Each structure stands twice: as structure tokens, then as C-alpha cells.
Amino acid sequence: MDAREIEADLNETLVTEAEIHAKLAELARRIEADYEGRDILLVGVLKGAVMVMADLARELRPHVTMDWMAVSSYGAGTQSSGVVRILKDLDSDLTGRHVLIVEDIIDSGLTLSWLLGNLRSRGAASVEICALFRKPDAAKVEVPVRYIGFDIPNKFVVGYGLDYAERYRNLRDVAVLAPHVYS
Ligand code: PRP
Q1: CATH code of the domain in which 65 resides
Q2: Are strands 157-158 and 174-177 parallel, antiparallel or unpaired?
Q3: Counting atoms of ligand 1 from 1, which one is nearest the CA of 78?
Q4: Which of 43, 69, 105, 116 to mutate to test the pocket of ligand 1 (most atoms within 8 A of CB)?
Q5: Cys-Cys link to 59, which of 28, 42, 65, 155 (CB 3.0-4.6 A)?
Q6: For atom 22 of ligand 1, which residue has the closest CA?
Q7: Rounded to the nearest whole angstrom, what is the distance from the C-alpha of residue 37 to the centroid of ligand 1?
Q8: Which of the residues are catalytic?
Q9: Considering the chain, what is the average pLDDT of its residues?
Q10: 81 within domain boundaries
């Protein structure tokens, strides 16, 4: 889906598909260098990270393996509470593995902060985070992120995996949702 097809629903485009792909290529080169000689297990967090995972994994030149988790934070509405429930756990045993968590966005940081602790307790050799977007002004906890794509303003953004009511994930770019859509 292209932004111009739903322009009435959007304010401005924040990051284009081309900018995302250029950034993922840059991150992939850093990841390849940092993990040279070590096998990477990419862990994607459903559902938002599907696009990042698909594009980052294909950008990486060595073999990687992929696994998925689905988590849900308890709490009202759109605000994270920090209490996280596992809806789908990993299929893999993490013992001795080099785990790279792949996320679309860090908002409050509560989900990733919890996930980092959870995965680190499973005996992995290392656990690092790659997140394509981060909203510094929304942070409630600092999350140690090794690879970050873009810092963006604390606005309601959709596209490239990010949804509003499960829609807009297939928008190619990342754009600010027009307030009339959700108010
Ligand atoms: C989004 C995103 C992160 C989390 C970030 O997922 O993919 O997992 O919120 O928010 P936080 O930093 O405030 O914890 P969401 O719960 O919307 O589910 P989705 O990936 O299925 O859209």
C-alpha cells in the first residue's frame, strides 16, 4: 500500500521505504561485522516486527536462523503497563545462542525491557536488540539498544508493520496518522 492511496488518513510521511531499506543495509553491515564467526538467532516480536525481520534478514549475508515470540502487555487501551504475557513462545532453546531481538518500535520501552530480562534468563550466550524506530520522548525505561534505525517524534505513526486497530501495517512508508482517523 502506498501513502498516496490513503493520503486522507495521513499527515506527513516520516520515513520512506527507501530510507528504511538504506538504514537496514547499514545496520546489517554493522551486525555482520560484530557477529563475525558467530551464528545469529534473530527473534522477531509479532506482529509489528514482521516487515523489519523480513527485510533485515534478507539484507544479512551470512546464514541466520529466525524465531518468533508474541507478547501482550496487560493494561488498558494503548498504554503499556510493563506487565507482559507470552502469547506465543519461542520454538528454540536459547542455551549458548547469540540472540538478536528484532523490533519495529520502542515506545515506552517496557515491552523490550521485560523481554530482554526474560530471554537473558534462558542461558543465551548474548542477547542484543535491533529496533528500527524509537520514540525517545515516550521512554519510561531506558533500554540498552545495540542497533537503532531512527529516533522519531512521539506521534501516532503507522506503516511498515506499525498499526492502528490492525490496519496500515502494509503501508510501505512510515507516516503520522491523521487525528480524525482515531478521534
Ligand atoms: C508494539 C511494538 C512493541 C511495543 C512497544 O507492539 O511492536 O512490541 O508495542 O511498546 P513499548 O515500548 O511501549 O512497550 P504492540 O503491542 O502494539 O503489538 P503489535 O506488534 O502486534 O502491533
Answers
A1: 3.40.50.2020
A2: antiparallel
A3: 17
A4: 105
A5: 28
A6: 48
A7: 32
A8: 107
A9: 95
A10: yes
